[in-house]
């Protein structure tokens, strides 16, 4: 026998289920209950940097859009600082860097507006390419899925990014790169997430 | 005080796997490739910070937060309370806990829920709160009812409250469900059984807590939540790799 370690064990995850919107986005579930719904404004009014729209679909293994998914985004500001005591530095007043979005119940399309994040400090040395951390929950997803969205136009930074480079299969790295376009004067990044099958998105154990 | 460092590796054997055939919806929604393991960077050890300006004091009282003045929802009045701790046993203060649930008849106030049990005009079914400096949280609500769902033809969810917890790092983000002591449906539920070990399943069952109850008023259940713990950086990490 040995001494007993007295660590606790993490509470196990359970699916968010089909009615996740009631709890986390009640307005979308069809009723008003809170004075402020959280997570609809990621960057706030004072954030510097390029204003962008990010949109996409979450697609299941049959090729169908997932229409009851909820995504959360966590990102740095355009200087590469997270709004957190250990986030690297100051952020603009009103910048939270966190948001939450649900899909259109008919089409499965989701979208949010924010500013493009800057490069962030790497784990120990170097820098990480601009990216948005995403967390995906839905009915049928037993543990929330973590992935990262990178930007197509950051070719050089992406090539040096420590996380992209840890992905052994170069062709899978492409699943994390959002496509840039311009629509009605707005910068739009397209990021479709494939849960399963051909070109399955890379998900991380963070 | 050493600087808080990265999180302890998540024990994936304690969580459900992605593919759980008896929970049918997981089959087409489960990634087939392995997750790629990352050592934490600033992106994972940080997370959103919430404060009392984000919520209202009534938000954790599901008996009052949607009821018409002077009315209240039908059902067994309960308190669900406990602490949010990390794996080191330390309380997690000021963290956002969100809850959602069906009403006492097992019906959600959601446009996609078509179960024949009625909507309760005085019950919204969602709440939220911040833990206090000791990691303590509580909700007042009515006990949710069991409800049928399409999986096998005769599956019923045990009474449960969905809970969403943030912690201090995005890598601690967790959604789970709280069940209630004594419910015979727990052991029959394919969603509960996505969790491989009985001990881990048991950790999702709130205990009847007579001491926490308010005599002649409300009965209590105790539900503690454990988030991933963090290392202390006693020594600087080697600057190898990333
Ligand atoms: Fe539920």
Describe the structure.
Chain B: Belongs to the intradiol ring-cleavage dioxygenase family. Chain B: Residues 45-229 form the Intradiol ring-cleavage dioxygenases domain. The complex is a heterodimer of chains A (206) and B (242). Chain A has helices spanning 20-24, 26-29, 155-159, 162-166, 170-173, and strands at 51-56, 58-59, 70-75, 98-102, 110-115, 120-121, 127-128, 131-137, 145-151, 177-183, 186-190, 193-194, 204-205. In chain A, strand 6 and strand 7 form a beta hairpin. In chain A, 49% of the residues are buried. The model of chain A has no long low-confidence stretch (mean pLDDT 95). With 206 residues, chain A is mostly beta strands. With 242 residues, chain B is mainly beta. Chain B contains two helices and 14 strands, in the order ββαββββββββαββββ. In chain B, strands 3, 4, 5, 6, 9, 10, 11, 12 and 13 form a nine-stranded mixed sheet that branches. A two-stranded antiparallel sheet of chain B has the order 1-14. In chain B, strand 9 and strand 10 (174-180) form a beta hairpin. Chain B is globular. Classes of the chains: A mainly beta (206), B mainly beta (242). The interface between A and B is large, with 85 and 89 residues. Strand 13 (204-205) of chain A pairs parallel with strand 2 (36-37) of chain B. Bound molecules: fe (ii) ion. Fe (ii) ion (FE2) is lined by residues 157, 160, 162 of chain B.
Q: What is the topological layout?
A:
The complex is a heterodimer of chains A (206) and B (242).
Chain A: H1 20-24, H2 26-29, E1 51-56, E2 58-59, E3 70-75, E4 98-102, E5 110-115, E6 120-121, E7 127-128, E8 131-137, E9 145-151, H3 155-159, H4 162-166, H5 170-173, E10 177-183, E11 186-190, E12 193-194, E13 204-205
Parallel strand pairs in A: 1-11, 2-12, 9-10
Antiparallel strand pairs in A: 1-5, 3-4, 3-8, 6-7, 8-9, 10-11
Chain B: E1 4-7, E2 36-37, H1 42-45, E3 77-86, E4 96-100, E5 126-130, E6 136-142, E7 147-149, E8 155-157, E9 160-165, E10 174-180, H2 198-202, E11 205-208, E12 219-222, E13 225-227, E14 230-232
Parallel strand pairs in B: 3-12, 3-13, 10-11
Antiparallel strand pairs in B: 1-14, 3-6, 4-5, 4-9, 7-8, 9-10, 11-12
The complex binds fe (ii) ion (FE2).
């Amino acid at each position: 026998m040995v001494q007993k370690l007295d660590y606790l064990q993490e509470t196990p995850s359970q699916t968010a289920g089909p009615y996740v919107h009631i709890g986390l986005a009640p307005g979308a579930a069809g009723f008003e209950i809170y004075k402020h719904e959280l997570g609809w404004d990621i960057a706030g009014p004072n954030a510097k940097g390029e204003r962008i729209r990010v949109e996409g679909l979450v697609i299941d293994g049959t090729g169908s859009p997932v229409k009851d998914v909820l995504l959360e985004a966590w990102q740095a500001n355009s200087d590469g600082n997270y709004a957190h005591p250990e986030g690297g530095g100051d952020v603009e007043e009103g910048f939270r860097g966190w948001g939450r979005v649900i899909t259109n119940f008919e089409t499965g399309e989701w979208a949010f507006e924010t500013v493009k994040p800057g490069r962030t400090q790497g784990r120990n040395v170097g820098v990480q390419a601009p990216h948005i951390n995403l967390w995906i929950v839905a009915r049928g997803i037993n543990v929330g899925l973590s992935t990262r969205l990178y930007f197509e136009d950051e070719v050089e930074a992406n090539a040096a990014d420590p996380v992209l480079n840890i992905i052994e299969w170069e062709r899978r790295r492409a699943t994390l790169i959002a496509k840039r376009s311009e629509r009605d004067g707005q910068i739009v990044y397209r990021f479709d997430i494939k849960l399963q099958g051909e070109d399955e998105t890379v998900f991380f154990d963070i | 005080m050493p600087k808080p460092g990265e999180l302890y590796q998540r024990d994936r054997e304690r969580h459900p796997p992605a593919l759980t055939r008896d929970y049918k919806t997981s089959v087409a929604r489960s990634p087939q490739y392995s997750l790629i393991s990352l050592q934490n960077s600033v992106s994972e050890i940080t997370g959103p910070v919430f404060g009392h300006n984000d919520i209202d004091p009534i938000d954790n009282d599901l008996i009052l937060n949607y009821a018409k003045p002077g009315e209240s929802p039908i059902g067994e009045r309960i308190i669900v309370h406990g602490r949010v701790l990390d794996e080191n046993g330390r309380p997690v203060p000021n963290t956002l806990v969100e809850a959602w649930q069906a009403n006492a008849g097992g019906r959600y106030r959601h446009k996609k829920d078509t179960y024949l049990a009625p909507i309760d005009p005085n019950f919204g079914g969602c709440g939220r709160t911040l833990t206090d400096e000791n990691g303590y949280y509580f909700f007042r609500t009515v006990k949710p009812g069991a409800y049928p769902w399409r999986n096998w033809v005769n599956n019923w969810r045990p009474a449960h409250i969905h809970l969403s917890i943030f912690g201090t790092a995005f890598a601690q983000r967790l959604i789970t469900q709280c069940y209630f002591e004594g419910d015979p449906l727990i052991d029959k539920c394919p969603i509960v059984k996505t969790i491989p070990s009985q001990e881990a399943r048991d950790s999702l069952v709130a205990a009847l807590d007579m001491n926490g109850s308010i005599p002649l008023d409300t009965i209590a259940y105790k539900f503690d939540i454990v988030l991933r713990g963090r290392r202390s950086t006693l020594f600087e990490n080697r600057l190898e790799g990333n």
